[in-house]
Structures are given as structure tokens and as C-alpha cells.
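To: structure subgroup
Subject: Chain for Friday's discussion

All,

I'm putting the inputs and outputs inline so they're searchable in the archive.
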Amino acid sequence: MRSNRLLGAQLVEHNLVKIDHLEAANGKLLEMINTGSPRQRTVLGILAYELEAVKEEDILIQQSDTYGAGVIDLRHYDMHEELKTGLDSSSCWATWSVPFDQEEDVTFVATAYYLSPAVRKFWEEKYDGRVLWFGTTLENIADFLDAQFGPIVGLVDPPPANT
């Protein structure tokens, strides 16, 4: 919840969305907290795809121009095995971020939520501040997580009842 709230505030602060859109998205997000899957619990997804209030591309450009964050397409990456060991995929879903590689003591993290200070703090604390950030889309994160950890349990329709 916190990563969503802080991302929303930053999107408004950077003039990427209007406060009215954020309030509407937060209302929809609250509805999904108890009923939706982790894949649906994203204020950015609601803003970009349901309300069409922002384009992820505009956010990526903002991140790159303002903060120097790189942009990455994870389709051609596999998660570094040392990173995968001990990594809880629920943290990745909650922060819409994924560590995907390591070089020496620097961890490369791709995220759709770079503008959320809570997300950056979480991963920087996990990796002792040695993080190189890359922006990407929600779809890219979701596809990568599905490929690395399998689809989220509970997203499949239940089997039909015996007849």
C-alpha cells in the first residue's frame, strides 16, 4: 500500500497525473486489496490502463531525464541464480521491482515504481545501498516474474465441480 501511495504522490508532484485521477485510482485500488491478485494491486496499472490518465512511457522518460535511471527490457534476461536464492517474489510484486543481475557488489534492479521512495528504500536497504536502477513497464515486470517464479497462485480459474 505504501509503495502505491508514495508513487501516486510523486506522479502528481511531477505533473504526470492529476489529483482527481489519483483519487479515483486509489478508490479502485482499495477495492482490489481484498479481492484482486498481486498483479492487479497497482495504482500505476489503474492509472495507465483503466483510467488512461498516464502513459508508462512518459514516466520512464521522466525517470531517465530527472534521475538518470536507465530503461530496460527484461525479455532477454534470466535472473541471476544467486539473487533468486532467498528472494521472496511477493516483495517483487508488492514493489513492482525485480533484481535481475549482480556485478561484484552492485545489484541491478528493474522497477516500474522508481518514483516511489518506499520502493527505492526497500531495495537499497536489502542490498546495502549498492543498487543500479533501471525503469521498465508493469507488463515487463509481470512477465519476468512469471518466467522466473511461475504464475501467481490463485490466478487460474478453479477446476469445474464434478458433475
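Points worth raising on Friday:
Residues 19-35 form the longest helix (17 residues).
The beta strands are 70-71, 97-103, 106-111, 131-135.

D.
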